[in-house]
Amino acid sequence: MKKIAIPFLFLILSISLSAQEKLWTLQECVTHALENNISVKQSQLDLELTDADKLDAIGNFLPSINANASASKNTGLSLNPTNNRLESTTFGSASGAINVGYTLFDGLQNVRQLQRAKLSELAAQYRLDKMKDDIALLVANSYLQVLLNKANLEVSKSQNIVTLQQLDRTNNLVDAGVLPRGDLLEIKATDAGEKQRIAVAENTVKISLINLAQLLLVKDYSSFDIADEEYKIVDDGIADKDVNEIINSAKETRSEVKIALKNVELAEKDVQISQGNFYPTLSAFFGYNTRYADNDPLDRAFTEQLYLNDGIGYGLQLNVPIFNGFSVRSNVKRNKVNLKNTEYQLEQAELDLESNVYQAYVDANGALKAYEAATVALESQELAYQYAKDRYDVGLTNAFDFSQSKLRFDNAKIEENRTKFEYIFKLKVLELYFGVPASELKF
After folding, report:
1. What is each CA distance from 328 to 2, 57, 336, in whole angstroms?
2. How far apart are CA 405 and CA 403, in angstroms?
3. What are the structural domains, with CATH classification, of the chain?
4. Residue span of the signal peptide, if any (predicted)?
5. Strand ranges (DSSP E) for 249-393?
6. Closest C-alpha among 381, 273, 260 to residue 335
7. Residues 203-213: pLDDT tens digits?
8. 256 and 349 in contact (C-beta within 8 Å)?
9. Residue 100, C-beta contacts closer than 8 angstroms, at least 6 positions apart
10. How crowded is residue 143: how many other Cβ atoms within 10 Å of its Cβ?
């Protein structure tokens, strides 16, 4: 029994641990955010609302059909609906009618409303696309920040291991009388400073993980963690392109300009719709009605009365606007002003996009140069550190100079990590402007 129970126990334990230690990849974080982010959900609802607007616009092309019925009890002098005579008696009556109406011409307002509903749907889709791009980029930035903080923590830990080794060696040399006790105290001070930096780095990692979890709406902060994947600089040649080529691509693909352009088209439709009120409206109508009374002189049955007392009406109705207190004219003027405003907004959106692309292009190139410089500096500091270590090991330099060299090497490694992840993010921003979908960004 024990032979069966022990493996089973280990199986349950391993399943439990694997469930608790879920490590989120960048793609999982982006997918989760796009599915659960409140702003994205609100944009999706806005898109669904446009379906209702489009349904209303389509319904304007269909005839209106309405039915009504009434029943009453009359006492005293009342009009008998079956013979149109005034009678002083008590009787019950009922009537019913069906009316059909259809707009033949309304200044093309129905056509414009449908066109506007379709434009509104496109604009809502572009807003949703932009929201998804923004959220994906925000998640990627937060994810890379966690990776950067973790990389810096590993630098601090690995260098502290070296310090502990040096502390042990220095302690032996001091005991042997080879090195002065001041060197031991210097190494101990270095160890204490590194442990303090490790504590700060661990706290920074926790804070960045909490920030990412909050962005993803994940409430279990204590067990939330990301996969420690190696993210390399993946450049598909975007950074080598001419900035004007990136700007032109951004104007064709970015949602900011598309949204502004659709807003102009929507404003144009609003002007056309309001101008339609200057034109006459022609509509057709058809009606059928019938009635019944329980004091019929001939004592005819209910169905017979409905058949004999029915009637039909049909015709055309023309409404010509002559004067409505300038309401139509003022509405047209307001819509024209709004159109002009949206045209300015489109122009501003194009200028802002051009400026943002230029800024992203400069940032990406600057980040690359900073990363290359940090890499060279790290190589130099590593050589300097190794040289100082070798000299310290043979007693040609003191502990203070060695600690300073080691500190410069640690800082160079941290700076190389920072510039690397900053360049990765800046490069992805530039790729987004070039038209690469957020879901297809390569890390």
Report:
1. 90, 21, 12
2. 5
3. 24-62+106-279+321-436 (1.20.1600.10), 71-105+283-320 (no CATH)
4. 1-19
5. 281-293, 311-319
6. 273
7. 999 999 999 99
8. yes
9. 63, 64, 65, 285, 286, 287
10. 28
